[in-house]
Write a structure and sequence with these properties.
Layout (H helix, E strand, L loop, with lengths): L1 H37 L8 H23 L6 H4 L4 H33 L13 H28 L2
Length: about 160
């Protein structure tokens, strides 16, 4: 179990820092854009495309972080009424579904990144495929975090 926990701990900390920095940058960027637009009547063009990339990073890395903490969406009121064995089975199914979802995101975004790699994000000039690299990283993290939870469930079951 330690073989996956240590890398996931490191990955969790990196994602947390990147998500926090992205949120701080987004707040700063939006304030800058609003001040420039309404105070100086000179709205910068680059604010919106950068803000979109930051929102994607915040949302998807935040989702991965919540998976690691076990705080993703669930039907807790139903699951808590099940016996312990039923709760374990439902948790296992839940993590298998999260892994399947992460694989679907990974494959879909990999195809989109490949398809759009020669296109450019207007104003920024960056490759359009960059938008899809963020979900690819997040899906890998979600799969790793869910696998860690599955291994923990399996280890508890065999104790």
């Amino acid at each position: 179990m330690t073989f996956l926990k240590r890398p996931n701990d490191f990955l969790f900390r990196v994602l947390l820092v990147v998500a926090a920095l992205s949120l701080a940058a987004l707040c700063t960027l939006v304030i800058y854009g609003v001040v420039m637009r309404y105070v100086f009547a000179d709205a910068p063009d680059f604010v919106e495309p950068i803000a979109l990339l930051l929102v994607i990073a915040i949302a998807l890395f935040g989702a991965a972080l919540r998976v690691r903490e076990g705080g993703h969406i669930g039907l807790d009121s139903f699951v808590k009424k099940l016996p312990p064995k039923g709760q374990t089975i439902v948790a296992g199914i839940q993590h298998l579904c999260l892994i399947a979802f992460a694989v679907a995101i990974f494959i879909g975004c990999l195809e989109m990144a490949e398809t759009t790699r020669h296109d450019r994000i207007p104003i920024l000039g960056l490759p359009e495929g960059l938008r899809y690299c963020i979900p690819i990283v997040a899906s890998i993290c979600i799969a790793m975090f869910s696998t860690e939870h599955l291994l923990a469930l399996f280890a508890r079951k065999h104790k």
